[in-house]
Amino acid sequence: MSNKPTIVLVHGFWGGAAHWSKVIIELSRKGYSSIRAVEMPLTSLADDAERTRKMVAQINGPVLLVGHSYGGAVITEAGDLPNVVGLVYIAAFAPDAGESPGGITQESVPVAAANLAPDSDGYLWVKPEKFHESFCQDLTPEEGLVMGVTQKAPLASTFGDTITAPAWKKKPSWYQISSEDRMISPENEARMSARLGAKKIITLVASHASLASKPVEVAALIDEAATEAVKSL
Fold it and tell me: Does domain 6-108+161-231 have CATH number 3.30.70.270?
């Protein structure tokens, strides 16, 4: 529909574009015919932001960027583009200039921090046997098994990459807090969302994987953001 922006979904650490599968279905049901999901290399913030910028540059018309987890840092870094009309953070990092996901994590260490394990090549994994309880405890054990086996590990150095100019200082934003998040502490999510000056903040009783466990509610927030963002055009 011409009055709806293109939704560009940006995944986080330990997953890929397919983590958005349930949200994509819900957005399609709401009439969104132009939806994209970036597949990032998770090799550095600069690489991931550039991949996102390139996708946005291919789109004619307004774009709403939606980031989950580390994807929030990516949309913060990449979001100050002319056709981006808003930013939606789903249980996500929303760093300020000079901040990194790793630095924010240390401010309030999440419950599952001990379940991360680096490998000899510099990639950081969630221990597969701990993935369900760490990342998506409100999904079925079978869904957790699949997510754990198919996880996409980031280079650990990416945690230390800092934001240069945060897009949320120029673009309207919306934020979803997961009250049962074990990967980003809910306290950090509350702090980051408060300083955004977000147009709306919602809290879901959900794990870090709210995009999979609460897709109806997440899609509703995205839809509300999209509707409001295009009003000012």
Answer: no
